[in-house]
Amino acid sequence: MARRLLSPGSFVRKILVGTIRGYLGFALRTTRWTISVEPEARRVLTCEDGRTGVVAFWHEVLPLTPALWWWAEPQNPAMRLHVLISRNQDGRLIADIVGKWRIWSIAGSSDTRGKDKGGAAALRRMRARLRHGGIVAITPDGPRGPRRQAQQGATAVAALARRPIVPVGATCLSIRLKSWDKMIVPLPFGRGYLVCGAPLLLPREKEADPEHSADRLLAEAITRVTTEAEQFSGAHPGWRQEKLWLAPLSLQPSRVWSAVATALAPLLPFLLRWRQTRGKESPGRVREKMGFASRQRPPGPLVWFHAASVGEVVSILPLVEICLAKNAALTALVTTGTVTAASLLQQRLTHPRLVHQFVPLDVPRWGRRFLAHWQPQAVVFTESELWPNLIGLCHQQAVPVALVNGRMSGRSFRGWLKLRPVARRMLERFAWIAPRSEEDSERFRRLGARSLLAAGDIKTAAPALPVDPAALQAVTQQLAGRPVFLAASTHEGEEERIWQAAQSLRASFPSLLTILVPRHPERGAAVSAICGGAPRRALGQFPARTDAVWVCDTLGELGLFYRLAEVVFLGNSLPDVRNGGGGHNPFEPARLDCALATGPLTQNFHEAFAVLGKSVASVSTASDLAGWVATLLKHPDQREARAAEARAVATANTALPEELAEKVLGLLSS
Fold first, then answer.
1. In the chain, which end has fewer C-beta atoms inside a 10 angstrom radius, N or C?
2. H/E stretch holding 133
3. pLDDT for 23-34, tens place per residue?
4. In which pathway is this protein known to take part (predicted)?
C-alpha cells in the first residue's frame, strides 16, 4: 500500500517531494554560509578552462550539498552537475527533490537487497559526463554504509576518467537523525560551513599496502575536511573564504520578460491570424508558432537549429549538412521565423533526416510545449537570435545551447547595455558562442558571455549558391549574349533609383538588361509597376530585346542570377530604403565572380564589407550607380580584377563549418 502511495507520479509522492524540497530550500537559503575553497579545487568546482572532477562527501551531509552547487553554478552556468544515487525508492526520492535545482541524477548503485543494479552502466555514464564538461558528485559511503568508510565507486570513476576528486566537508545548525549515517537535517536561520580541500589525483589500482590504498586516502581526505568544517577556524593561508547567503540560480534570464510574454499570450493568436491574412504566415501551420508540432519526433538524437530568416538559413545550411553527414543517427530540426525562409530551406536541403517547423514565439508555455515534444539533445541558434524565455527553458532542462555566427550590431549592443543583467544571465547560459567577428566577440564579452570561440564568419565558408543547370542553360540561350546588370535583394524605396539608373544606362548600352530581384517576392507586382510594367519571372514572362528591366520575383534563384550577371548591386543599402537599411551578404555574389557595389547603409554586414575592402564600390544615387556600371562594362579588365579580389576573400575560410560541426556534435555528449 505504501509503495503504491509513493509510486512515481502519485499525488502523495508529489506532496512529499514538494514539502521536503520546500523545507530544505528554506533552511539552506536562510543559513549564513562560510565557504573555504582551496584554489585548485575552485577551478575544478567551477569547470574553469574545461577542468572537471568528482566531488566526494559523506552521506550524512547530503542534505547540505545543494548549497555548494548554488555557490558554484552562478560562476559557470554552462556546467552540469550529476549525482550518483541508488536505484531504490530512497534514491529516486532524492533525485526528485534535487532535480528542480538542476542537480541531475545517475542511478546505478545497489538496491535494498544489495544486488548490483546497473553499476557498470552508471560508471560509463559518469565517465562520459566528466569527459564532456560535467561534475559528478558521489557519497563514497552510501547508500548503505559503513559510515565514513569509502567504497570503490568514487575512486574507480575518477581513475577511469582520469579526473581528480575534490573532498568536501559541511556542517550547519542542524539536528542529526538516528540513521546509520547520522544524517544532518539543517535548521533555518543558522550558520553553515563548507570546506573544499585540495583535489586528489589517485592511482588507477590499489597499491599493495592497504594503508595507502586509494579508498583509504580518499576517506582520510573527506574526514579531514569534514572535521575542519565542524571545527571551523578558517586557518588556511592562500584559501579564499566567502561569507554569503545562497539560493538556486534563477533559470529565467528575465522574470519580467517571462511575465510580459505570458500576459500577452492570449492576444498573440489574433496577431498570428492577422499575419496569415497578409501572407506572412503559412496557412495550416500557424499553430506551430504556439508550440504545437505538425510532425512526429523521429527516434534517436536530435539537434535543434534555429535560423530566423533567409540570410540565416543560407549561412547555417552547410553546418546542418555536415552534422547530418557525420552522424548517421542524427535528426536535424530546423526552425525558421518567416515563410520565405521556410520555402528556401525546402528548396535547398531536402534530406530524409531534416525536419522543418516554425519557431514558437517566446512565450514560456509555448516553449515548454515545443521542447516537450521535440526533446532536443542540443540547440544551435544563429546570428542575433536571442530569446530569453526559450534559452532559459533549455537551461532549465539541461539542454546545451550554442550560438553560431553570433552577431551583435551596434544598435542591439546599446539596447542590451540598458538591460545588462538580463543579457548577462542569458549569454551565460550558452555552452559556447562562435562570434562572427572580433567586434562582435568584444560586444558579447562586455555583455557577460563566457565561452567565446575564435571569431569567424560562417558566411565566408559557405559553398557557392546552387543553380538548376537546365534553367541556367535556358535563360542564357534566351538572353542571347545580352550584358546583364543585377540589382539583388532590393527593398522598398530603392527600386525607383535602380529604374532611373537602368534607363540612363540604356542610352550607352542599348542591349543591357537590368535584372531586379526584390528581397520579398510578394512585392513583384509593385516593383514591376515602378519599372513601367516590366515583365515578371513569377508570371512566366521573359524580357524582350526592348525591355530594360526584368523583375525576377521568385525565391531561391539568386544562384542563377549571379551567374548571369557581370556586375551586381546589393540592396537594402541606399539612403532611400524604407526600413533603415543594413545591407545584405556580399560573399554570395563574390563567390560567383561578380563585381560588387552597395549603398552606404551596410551596418548589418559591416565586418564582411570591411574585409572585402575596395573590391566593393559604394554608391548613393542613381547617377552613382549608373556611372559605376558603365565604367565596368567599358573596362572588362577592371571588372575582372575587382571580381577576383572579392572571390579570394569570400572563399578563404572553408574549414570553419567542419570545425563548428565538431563543436555542435560535441554538445550531444555534454
1. N
2. none
3. 999 999 999 999
4. Bacterial outer membrane biogenesis; LPS core biosynthesis
